[in-house]
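Quick illustration, no need to memorize.
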Amino acid sequence: MTGVQTCALPIFRRLLLAHAPELTLFTLGGDHTVTWPVIAPLLELDRVHEVGVVHFDAHTDLLPERLGIRICFATWAFHANALLGGGERMIQIGIRASARDRGHWERELEVRQIWANEAIELGAEVLAKRVVEHLHFRGIRRVYVSNDIDGTDAHWAAACGTPEPGGLTPAMVVAVIQAVGREFELIG
Protein backbone atom coordinates (compact mmCIF):
# COMPACT_ATOMS: atom_id res chain seq x y z
CA MET A 1 0.00 0.00 0.00
CA THR A 2 1.49 3.38 -0.94
CA GLY A 3 1.62 6.41 1.33
CA VAL A 4 -0.99 8.19 -0.79
CA GLN A 5 -3.47 5.32 -0.40
CA THR A 6 -2.81 5.09 3.34
CA CYS A 7 -3.45 8.82 3.77
CA ALA A 8 -6.65 8.68 1.71
CA LEU A 9 -8.22 5.85 3.71
CA PRO A 10 -9.12 7.90 6.82
CA ILE A 11 -10.71 10.57 4.61
CA PHE A 12 -12.64 7.92 2.70
CA ARG A 13 -13.75 6.30 5.99
CA ARG A 14 -14.92 9.68 7.35
CA LEU A 15 -16.97 10.28 4.21
CA LEU A 16 -18.55 6.84 4.48
CA LEU A 17 -19.41 7.42 8.14
CA ALA A 18 -20.91 10.83 7.38
CA HIS A 19 -23.33 9.25 4.89
CA ALA A 20 -23.86 5.88 6.57
CA PRO A 21 -23.12 6.08 10.31
CA GLU A 22 -24.32 2.49 10.81
CA LEU A 23 -21.63 1.20 8.46
CA THR A 24 -19.40 -1.64 9.67
CA LEU A 25 -16.18 -2.21 7.78
CA PHE A 26 -14.71 -5.68 7.52
CA THR A 27 -11.13 -5.62 6.34
CA LEU A 28 -8.88 -8.57 5.58
CA GLY A 29 -5.18 -8.84 5.01
CA GLY A 30 -2.08 -6.82 5.57
CA ASP A 31 -0.28 -6.16 8.81
CA HIS A 32 -1.65 -3.92 11.52
CA THR A 33 -0.57 -0.82 9.60
CA VAL A 34 -3.85 -1.20 7.67
CA THR A 35 -5.81 -1.11 10.93
CA TRP A 36 -5.01 2.51 11.73
CA PRO A 37 -6.81 4.20 8.79
CA VAL A 38 -9.90 2.08 9.48
CA ILE A 39 -10.07 2.55 13.26
CA ALA A 40 -8.87 6.15 13.65
CA PRO A 41 -12.03 7.82 12.25
CA LEU A 42 -14.20 5.57 14.45
CA LEU A 43 -12.34 6.76 17.54
CA GLU A 44 -12.88 10.40 16.65
CA LEU A 45 -16.67 10.12 16.86
CA ASP A 46 -18.69 11.76 19.63
CA ARG A 47 -19.57 8.42 21.25
CA VAL A 48 -15.97 7.21 21.67
CA HIS A 49 -16.63 6.66 25.38
CA GLU A 50 -18.86 3.72 24.32
CA VAL A 51 -16.16 2.10 22.16
CA GLY A 52 -13.89 -0.77 23.11
CA VAL A 53 -11.24 -2.63 21.17
CA VAL A 54 -10.69 -6.39 21.33
CA HIS A 55 -7.21 -7.08 19.99
CA PHE A 56 -5.90 -10.61 19.41
CA ASP A 57 -2.12 -10.59 18.96
CA ALA A 58 1.15 -12.16 20.09
CA HIS A 59 2.62 -8.65 20.37
CA THR A 60 1.32 -5.57 22.18
CA ASP A 61 1.69 -3.06 19.31
CA LEU A 62 1.89 -0.42 22.06
CA LEU A 63 5.02 1.46 21.04
CA PRO A 64 4.60 5.23 20.49
CA GLU A 65 6.90 4.90 17.47
CA ARG A 66 9.13 2.26 15.91
CA LEU A 67 12.37 3.12 14.15
CA GLY A 68 11.20 6.74 13.88
CA ILE A 69 7.86 5.79 12.32
CA ARG A 70 4.83 7.05 14.25
CA ILE A 71 2.07 4.90 12.70
CA CYS A 72 2.93 1.32 11.76
CA PHE A 73 2.15 -2.27 12.69
CA ALA A 74 3.91 -1.91 16.06
CA THR A 75 2.31 1.42 17.08
CA TRP A 76 -1.34 1.43 15.99
CA ALA A 77 -2.63 0.10 19.35
CA PHE A 78 -0.73 2.78 21.29
CA HIS A 79 -2.37 5.52 19.24
CA ALA A 80 -5.82 3.87 19.25
CA ASN A 81 -5.62 3.47 23.02
CA ALA A 82 -4.74 7.17 23.35
CA LEU A 83 -7.87 8.10 21.35
CA LEU A 84 -9.90 5.75 23.55
CA GLY A 85 -8.55 7.53 26.62
CA GLY A 86 -7.13 4.38 28.23
CA GLY A 87 -9.42 3.14 30.98
CA GLU A 88 -8.90 -0.50 29.95
CA ARG A 89 -11.22 -0.04 27.00
CA MET A 90 -8.69 -1.91 24.88
CA ILE A 91 -8.36 -5.57 25.78
CA GLN A 92 -5.46 -7.49 24.27
CA ILE A 93 -5.64 -11.29 24.13
CA GLY A 94 -2.85 -13.75 23.35
CA ILE A 95 0.19 -11.58 24.12
CA ARG A 96 3.40 -13.54 24.62
CA ALA A 97 6.20 -11.66 22.83
CA SER A 98 6.93 -8.39 24.62
CA ALA A 99 9.99 -6.59 25.92
CA ARG A 100 7.93 -5.53 28.95
CA ASP A 101 5.70 -7.47 31.30
CA ARG A 102 1.96 -7.25 31.47
CA GLY A 103 2.02 -5.03 34.56
CA HIS A 104 3.94 -2.35 32.70
CA TRP A 105 1.41 -2.09 29.87
CA GLU A 106 -1.61 -2.24 32.15
CA ARG A 107 -0.22 0.31 34.60
CA GLU A 108 1.36 2.76 32.16
CA LEU A 109 -1.18 2.67 29.32
CA GLU A 110 -4.35 1.46 31.07
CA VAL A 111 -4.98 -1.44 28.70
CA ARG A 112 -6.27 -4.81 29.87
CA GLN A 113 -4.27 -7.81 28.77
CA ILE A 114 -4.95 -11.52 28.91
CA TRP A 115 -1.67 -13.10 27.97
CA ALA A 116 -1.75 -16.38 26.05
CA ASN A 117 -0.83 -18.60 29.01
CA GLU A 118 -3.72 -17.16 31.06
CA ALA A 119 -6.15 -17.52 28.14
CA ILE A 120 -5.16 -21.16 27.68
CA GLU A 121 -5.70 -21.83 31.39
CA LEU A 122 -9.15 -20.22 31.23
CA GLY A 123 -10.31 -22.12 28.14
CA ALA A 124 -12.48 -20.77 25.33
CA GLU A 125 -15.81 -20.37 27.15
CA VAL A 126 -14.45 -18.75 30.31
CA LEU A 127 -12.16 -16.51 28.26
CA ALA A 128 -15.11 -15.29 26.18
CA LYS A 129 -17.15 -14.67 29.32
CA ARG A 130 -14.33 -12.67 30.94
CA VAL A 131 -13.89 -10.49 27.87
CA VAL A 132 -17.63 -9.72 27.71
CA GLU A 133 -17.80 -9.00 31.45
CA HIS A 134 -14.80 -6.71 31.25
CA LEU A 135 -16.28 -4.71 28.38
CA HIS A 136 -19.70 -4.44 30.06
CA PHE A 137 -18.07 -3.25 33.29
CA ARG A 138 -16.36 -0.46 31.34
CA GLY A 139 -19.67 0.71 29.81
CA ILE A 140 -18.72 -0.43 26.32
CA ARG A 141 -21.54 -0.69 23.78
CA ARG A 142 -19.63 -0.72 20.50
CA VAL A 143 -16.59 -2.90 19.74
CA TYR A 144 -13.86 -2.94 17.13
CA VAL A 145 -12.26 -6.40 16.80
CA SER A 146 -8.75 -6.79 15.45
CA ASN A 147 -7.32 -10.26 14.95
CA ASP A 148 -3.63 -10.52 14.16
CA ILE A 149 -3.13 -14.12 13.08
CA ASP A 150 0.01 -14.45 15.20
CA GLY A 151 -2.19 -14.29 18.30
CA THR A 152 -3.14 -17.81 17.29
CA ASP A 153 -0.56 -20.50 18.05
CA ALA A 154 2.01 -21.21 15.33
CA HIS A 155 0.60 -24.74 15.04
CA TRP A 156 -2.45 -23.26 13.27
CA ALA A 157 -0.81 -20.12 11.87
CA ALA A 158 2.70 -21.15 10.87
CA ALA A 159 2.60 -19.29 7.54
CA CYS A 160 2.19 -15.85 9.13
CA GLY A 161 5.12 -13.46 9.08
CA THR A 162 5.77 -13.60 12.82
CA PRO A 163 4.60 -17.00 14.11
CA GLU A 164 4.87 -17.49 17.88
CA PRO A 165 4.49 -20.74 19.80
CA GLY A 166 2.23 -21.01 22.82
CA GLY A 167 -0.68 -19.00 21.48
CA LEU A 168 -4.43 -19.17 21.29
CA THR A 169 -6.41 -21.91 19.62
CA PRO A 170 -8.80 -21.04 16.80
CA ALA A 171 -11.67 -22.11 19.12
CA MET A 172 -10.67 -19.42 21.63
CA VAL A 173 -10.64 -16.70 19.02
CA VAL A 174 -13.98 -17.81 17.59
CA ALA A 175 -15.58 -18.06 21.05
CA VAL A 176 -14.55 -14.52 21.97
CA ILE A 177 -15.65 -13.05 18.64
CA GLN A 178 -19.02 -14.82 18.81
CA ALA A 179 -19.62 -13.72 22.42
CA VAL A 180 -18.64 -10.13 21.66
CA GLY A 181 -20.84 -10.16 18.54
CA ARG A 182 -23.85 -11.30 20.57
CA GLU A 183 -23.40 -8.69 23.31
CA PHE A 184 -22.16 -5.57 21.51
CA GLU A 185 -22.53 -3.62 18.30
CA LEU A 186 -19.56 -4.50 16.12
CA ILE A 187 -18.22 -1.41 14.40
CA GLY A 188 -15.31 -2.99 12.55
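The longest helix spans residues 3-19.
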